[in-house]
Amino acid sequence: MIFRDVPRSLLRCVVGALFLCAALAGVAGCGGQSDAPPSASAAASGAPSAAASVPGPGSSASPPGWAKGIATVRVDALPAQARDVLVLIDKGGPYAYRQDGTVFGNFEKVLPKQKRGYYHEYTVKTPGERDRGARRIVTGEGGEFYYTDDHYETFKAVLR
C-alpha cells in the first residue's frame, strides 16, 4: 500500500478534509443534493454541536437517503459513551482503543454493501465490561453514522 509510511492521524485529517470539501460543495449546490449529514456544514461553520441539528420530537423531517429502510436513533437518545465517541470522531481522536478507526469489513452484511475500506469502526465503552464490549459506532465515507449495541447483529442509523 502506498500509504504504509504515512501516519494514520495524517491520513484521517486528509480524508476528513476531503469529506468536508464534498459536504460544503453539496451545501453550496455545486453537486446536486447532498446526503451528507447536517452536522458536516454545522461543524465547518462553527455552528452548535451535531445534536442540536437533530429534528425534535414530533418533527416530520425524514431521515437522509442512506438511513432509509433501517432503524434510526437520535444522537440525544444514544448512551453518553456513544455521544462521547461521536465527539472524538469529529475531532479526529484520540481514541481509547488501538482498533478504533480501523476498517469495518461488514462481513455480517447488515449495512449496505460498499467497497472494502468504506466503513470504519469505533468502540463505545460499556460500563462494567473488562474488554471492548459489544457497542460500536461505524462510520461510512458518505457521512453515515451507525450504532450497534449487539456487536454488529443490528444497527441503527444515527441521526445527527
What does this entry show, briefly?
With 160 residues, the chain is of the alpha+beta class. Helices cover 25% and strands 14% of the residues. The protein is globular.
Major beta sheet, specifics?
6 strands, mixed
Biggest sheet, strands in spatial order? 1-6-5-4-3-2
Structural class: alpha+beta
Radius of gyration: 16 Å
How do the helices and strands follow one another from N- to C-terminus? HHEHEEEEE
> Please, what is the average pLDDT?
75
Termini distance?
A: 33 Å
**Assembly state here?**
single chain
Global morphology: globular
Give the DSSP E fraction (strand runs of 2 or more residues).
5-15%
Number of strands: 6
Secondary structure: helix percent: 25-40%
The low-confidence parts are: 22-60
Structure description:
With 160 residues, this protein is of the alpha+beta class. Helix content is 25%, strand content 14%. The protein is built from 3 helices and 6 strands; from the N terminus they run H-H-E-H-E-E-E-E-E. Strands 1-6-5-4-3-2 form a 6-stranded mixed β-sheet, covered by helices on one side. The longest helix has 20 residues, at 8-27. It is globular, with a radius of gyration of 16 Å. The protein starts with 7 loop residues before the first helix and ends with a strand.
